[in-house]
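Posting for a labmate who doesn't have an account.
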Amino acid sequence: MILALEDVSGWTASADLIVVGYGIAGVCGAIEAREAGADVLVLERSSGCTGSTAVASGHFYLGGGTAVQTACGFSDSAEAVANYLTAVSDRPDKAKFDAFAAGGVALFDWLEARGVPFDRSYFPTKAVIQYGRDCLIWTGNEKVWPYRDEAAPAPRGHKVAFEGEEGGGALALRKLVEHAERIGVDTRFDMQVDALVMDAGRIVGVRARHFGERLFFRAERGVLLAGGGFGRNEAMMAHYLPRFDGVTILGGPYDDGTAINLGMDAGGAVDNMDGILVTSPIYPPEQLVKGILVNRDGKRFVAEDSYHSRTTLAIIEQPDGEAYLIVDSDIFAYPAWTEHANQRLVDGFA
């Protein structure tokens, strides 16, 4: 919803930059703006810092020769990172990939300097998430054919130093929020932003609901919308991702697309709205990638050692969205994620 300036009854507060949402994107934007000298006000819908990051394991995909890569004996380059992203993408964006790759080392240093902890350690086993504090892991398709022939492979998954499979994302978020508080970022919780205020074609503020009260906040220089995705919005899911109706959504409780819709109301463009990270991992344990993955017609369709989301997306494209992992007694095991991933055993020895 877009409101006119004359709809504002009065400003509750003002700041150079108003950040809507206090997940990983919001806190990083707030820190950057504050360190550049701006007054920053964050409005967060929940009573604390939540969002998808808070329930994530805490992996950052970074390369180009980070301190962890170097300490663990792996060489990497920005060119190799960009080449890999281009190889695995069905919509390559050279400018974006080059910029991301070139900034990998600086981003790692930026995170660590602001309190996010990373151990100098390597996890050699193929897994979805490390179960301990080990940092560096092969998280993508870097060693998988054909990508290994198109870009020099290197492990680039950096897990936040956290003992356990879950909690690294929450730790990273907490450390960044603590840093933001130290440098003077102003934060207000239980603020549901539901409208932008426009004057002469420019966004100059927001309206937020706070326990039934409607408040207005003025943005002197801009508004950053970082309110999460739309996994909790059934209408948007049906429109942009109809194939995934009924899947279990992992993310924050307020990922209802509000911030995205506000941006579109203001004339903003959206892209890649049909993108999704979906998974039904066949590993761990690691030996299961030695099995043979076939569709209902008995045809192989993907390299079994692929990144788990790539494998899952390939399964979805098969007849009836079904696949079978064929293993023998030497490598038999139950996939660790079977309980959560719509998998079941078909006993070939019965």
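Reply:
Got it, the structure tokens are right above this. The chain has three domains: 2-47+175-265, 57-166, 286-340.
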